[in-house]
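Q: My collaborator sent me two sequences in one message, no labels, and asked for predicted structures for both. Can we handle them in order? The first one she listed is below.
A: Yes, handling them in the order given. First sequence, followed by its structure tokens:
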Amino acid sequence: MAITKPANEEARVIALDKYAILDTDPEQSFDDLTLLASFVCKTPIALISLIDEDRQWFKSRVGIEASETSREIAFCSTAILQPDVFVVPDALADDRFRDNPLVVSDPHIRFYAGAPLINEDGYALGTLCVVDRAPRELAPEQKEALKALSRLVLAQLEFRRNLILLKEALSDRTKEEHERQRELIHVQETLMRVLGLREVPKSASAR
């Protein structure tokens, strides 16, 4: 199944990689937001889906066991092309998705709504999405809540990346300080050797 990719696809994937989040363990801060999305939108399934080159990987999930799927069948592959919440009221009535394996077999998606996770540089990293096994719509306030929660997901992604960068900077600084300390010790030892060689022997000074 051919999929349309964003015009900035190469740069988008590079941007996603910089977050160093793919294939990481579950984190409560993300799981809380997924749970809230499921609760607010009243859906059995909610996901934080990140789209890399050939798959969608779930950083957090409620109501589904799979940790990833092929990008070719991912509803989120279409959602990241949209600037706003992408809604599919009834997948079986939509020519783009009626034959999708995720529709005709488990988890039997009928309703999908995904808010794209677009960072401050304009790259769509993935979505916060909600899924139901029955056709339906989102109420306007639910759509706004989903968008608000997607902004919180992005804020958490940025916080996590900045924390990693800070740790790396502190680690580099510690390494530099250790290196300077070693250089200082080396200089001191060299100086002591030079001074020792130039010291006048006691036997000679006694004459």
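Q: And the one she listed second?
A: Here it is, processed independently of the first:
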Amino acid sequence: MSWRDLGAGEVRPEHVGQRLKLAGWVARRRDHGGLVFIDLRDSTGVSQLVVNPERAPEAAAAAHDIRNEFVLQAEGEIAGRAPENVNPGLPTGEVELQVERLEVISRSPPLPFQLDEEGVDETLRLRYRWLDLRRERLQRNLRLRAQAVSIIRREIEAAGFVDIETPIMAKPTPEGARDFLVPTRLQQGRFFALPQSPQIYKQLLVIAGFERYYQIARCFRDEDVRADRVQELTQLDVEMAFPDREFIFELIERTFAAVWRECIEAELPVPFPHMPYAEAMLRYGSDKPDLRFGLEIEDATELTRGSQFKVFAEAPAVRFLRVPQEFSRADLATLEEFAREWGAKGLAYLVYSEDDEVRSPIAKFLSEAELAEFRSEPGSTVLFGADTPELVARVLGAVRSRLGKELGLVEEGAWRPVWITDFPMFDPDEDTGGWKANHHPFTAPTPESVAALSSDPGSAVAQAYDFVVNGTELGSGSIRIHQPEVQQQVFDLLDISQEEQRARFGFLLDALGMGAPPHGGIAPGIDRTVMLLAAEPNLRDTVAFPKNQAGIDPMTGAPSEVPQEQLVELGIRVMPQKDKP
């Protein structure tokens, strides 16, 4: 049996006079006093059906009862539309199907929301995700995702990389987020972990002689969900032996330039510029700077060492932003509250009015030299951060991003990729007073930093790099440690005992001691890539079946309780939850 001769979106003027069958969903029904017009939708597009009771009385009777999202099969002759009825917005807008036979294949009750309805609550959309996915926008997003992945596979395989799958149930390892644990009936009291990434496996594959490995990998991280972060993510995972960082950069640039060009007809300017981490934090207050606008942070730490304004004089770092806007007191109060949310104690300012007068409670404490340095154009505001370098960068970076959007400074339609390089090897661990890995514990220090692992770990620089586009981190990578003694030294600095090293990473240390080549790679995120391509503010709308912000699937009800006998079989007892304070 043939359900249809063409897709609904494939009918064209050259089909006029042909008798065809079409099948699809009712996108819209319009009753014009006898004549019934139906927009029939399938994956190829939309065609207009015309049901005339004089031509097809049985079809007309059936048409009067249909609603949106009924599934129909229609058969009849393709006719050209009158010139005044042509719809230039549709590829099928010059023709219509004059229905002779109409069959209702599947019915639908009244919908919980209309597919063209705006502002539908996300929980309701996710509860009826199969309906939500019929929307044109989500259809576009998922098809765009498939196209992007196809291009990525083509480019990566052309460079000689082999697609190899790695286990989904693995050993828990420290990679920055909490693991999702999987109990096992056969080994009660023991747990697998869902992989946060295939990090160790891909290293082992390269050590095993697969010099160029890649995978479109599923990763799982038990962390809070945000607009640009989900618990189940997909990444392009790339690893190679005898790595050349510039080769990795060129490979990713070429691959993603092809994705942008073929998916959205836009050009990513290549080669991407490089920016050291320290410079990014100083100029933009972020390791993922949006380069589509200026508004750079300036440093005044040395200038203010002898300042009469004690907040500046005593702060480890003083930095400022020159904002091309004269802010009111209300504006400044709002910005100060925002800065406090990011950890600031306050937000000092100098406002220069259009008549070139300065308005500020701190101006009287500043010297002529300081005022001269901070002098800005009439109708502008200078905003200050004074605290530790890390806090000042975080606060002014957040303020910069907010103002870039609010003041319309962002160059719309522009693409500004950048490589962020030379990350610190370690960050201070405020909880333990020791160190934690800035990237992950398998990242190699630069050759110049190896000695610093013993003498000054805080100064060690990692061979790590991030791929950033328009303020969004798309990928993170590094050259890995391939010497077992260096890997053990890093574990020691991270306060992982010798016993724990053997228990958790003994197999990796053994592999590194058996002819491990230098190796490294990168893992760009597929979800975030599609989020940028589709100009979606929420990453969940690039995924077919996402969880909501609470990590719950409103459609299936997952995660759900399981029968007590299954818990007993697994050797698990659920503890009563403690009341939250």
